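Researcher: Last one for today. Full complex below.
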Amino acid sequence: MVTAEQVWEALAEIPDPEIPVISLVDLGVIKSVDVSEQRVRIEFTPTFLGCPALEVMRDAMTERVAALGAEPEVQVITDDSWSTDRITPAGRAKLRASGFAPPAPRASGGPQLVQLQSNAFRCPYCGSRDTALENIFGPTPCRSVRYCRSCRQPFEQFKTI
Amino acid sequence: MSAQQLLELADDELILGWRNSEWTGIAPMLEEDVAFSSIAQNEIGHARALYELAAREVGTTADELAFDRPPDEYRCSKLVQLRLVPDWARTIARHVIYERADQGRLEALKSCDDTELASLAAKIDREEAYHRMHAQMWAERLAGEPRFEEALAELEPLVDLRDEHVPEFAGLWEEMTEVRRSVAGATW
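Model: Here's the assembly. Have a good evening.
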């Protein structure tokens, strides 16, 4: 009989399809895992509602749970429970190590343009705060593009959601 | 909120998503090509989630609501129906007007009695915050420019008009629904 712990371990091996350096568990999108007998029910939240990787993630979870010998039921929950504050410390470290600046903590009232245009964001390559906003939007909905004036490196900044 | 009002919101997001995506590949700067493509993707994602809620109420599917209705049943605002490429000033004016109106609507929904809808509105609003920042940045840049100010004055009255369509909506509907009209129930 499969345990919830085994399911969490299996899910921790599924990479985010768009940022494969971190797993779905690192990303904090798994809302709950319920095991009863052979049935495993997983609730997960999209990061962004228009995320094209949703079906890929759902299928990967279904496959992993089935491989444990259980019957998977994966449900997409579009409530407000996910925020970038749910990305784990391990996930943040992995993002930074691959050149993605992890999201800043969400302040009350949410992000403001003046903050994005400020020096509050750290370059993941050299650690300098002398960085500039190049584009609020980037290659996927969850990222902005910034430029480090210190080491002259453009980098991707995870948006605070 | 009635299914009809939910459809108004979903239709606005879907149609604006399509119109924004018309800048993909031809925006005046690469950054804006990326921005409008990304905003389009978000808006269509919001439309999907809203159609899914509405679909459960009326016993159908999100795809059927989005793509299988006759054109006269779409309840989107005239503002989002307009085809504005290649006019950047009017595009930014629409962006500013829409995001402001949408913010008011989302604020109201976030505190509505339907907890599922309120929670979805709050999730949508997290993403819309970035659309608003983008609109704000451009509004500041274009403030006082005659073409931009004229466009604001021209487009502002359209935001609440839903009972009729602008002529170019027909072409958008044709393009948007072509696949499912060709292959009934097509999915990807």
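Chain B has a mean pLDDT of 96. Chain B is about 70% helix and 0% strand.
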